[in-house]
Amino acid sequence: MWSAHHWRFEICHVVQREGRCPAYPDHEEHAKMYGKDDVFISYSRKDSEVARTFKTVLEGTGLDVFLDVDDIRSGQLWEEELKRRIERAKIFQIFWSANYSQSENCKQEWEYALKQNKDEGYIRPVFWQKPLTPNPPEELNKFNFKYVELRYSPLCLRHLPKSGDLGRTCEFLRDECLFNLE
After folding, report:
1. Which 3 state secondary structure label does DSSP give 138?
2. Which residues contact 109 (CB under 8 A, 6 or more apart)?
3. Which among 38, 59, 99, 154 is least surrounded, fewest beta carbons within 10 Å?
4. DSSP assignment letter at 19
């Protein structure tokens, strides 16, 4: 079903056309610092390939990205760690799908994220299968659900600029990797 070479995502939720990260107005300083707990990825395990690809792209820009299967250690109390990471995240990235909508764990994550009462832009729902189905629950309906596209190429990701300049990285993603950054 999914070919890693033909995936489509839109990264505008993290970087804008000008190369700015909305969570960090002073993006150049942040890019140099490589902050912690930038993005919490909330996804259904049935959609793992989508979440992993997104994580790879974001980490390539210098962001710290939490993905439960990679970042929760053996023996850790996973529910408590998820709560800690949701609290600390600057972006709570929802990957909405039929699988996500049916997952009780995903529901617990987004309900907990809503309780954080963080600024606009903290909760960022995206979907990659058209049309958007099923409809989001009323609690999430106030957020714009953005359709995401990415033409992914492993060669492209290998050549991401390592300069720490987020603006340059964003330009590279737009021009060389054909990311739609609108």
Report:
1. coil
2. 42, 82, 86, 92
3. 154
4. S
Count of other CB atoms within 10 angstroms of residue 73: 7
Q: What is the pTM for the complete model shown?
A: 0.67
Helix or strand (DSSP H, E) at 39? strand 39-42
The C-alpha atoms of residue 170 and residue 163 are separated, in whole angstroms, by: 12
Beta bridge partners of 65: 39
* Sequence-ordered strand ranges (E) for the chain: 39-42, 65-66, 91-95, 123-127, 146-147
Answer yes or no: are the C-beta atoms of 82 and 109 closer than 8 Å. Answer: yes
CA angle 92, 10, 41 (to 5 degrees): 25
Instruction: Name beta bridge partners: 123.
Output: 92
3-class DSSP state of 41:
strand
> Percent of the chain at pLDDT above 90?
52
- Among the ranges 15-24, 36-45, 151-160, which has the highest mean pLDDT value? 36-45
Distance (Å, whole) CA 120 – CA 55: 22
Residue 106 has pLDDT above 80, yes or no: yes
Q: Is 104 exposed, middle or buried (0-12, 13-18, 19+ CB in 10 A)?
A: exposed
- Maximum C-alpha span of the chain: 43
**Mean pLDDT over residues 5-14, rounded?**
35
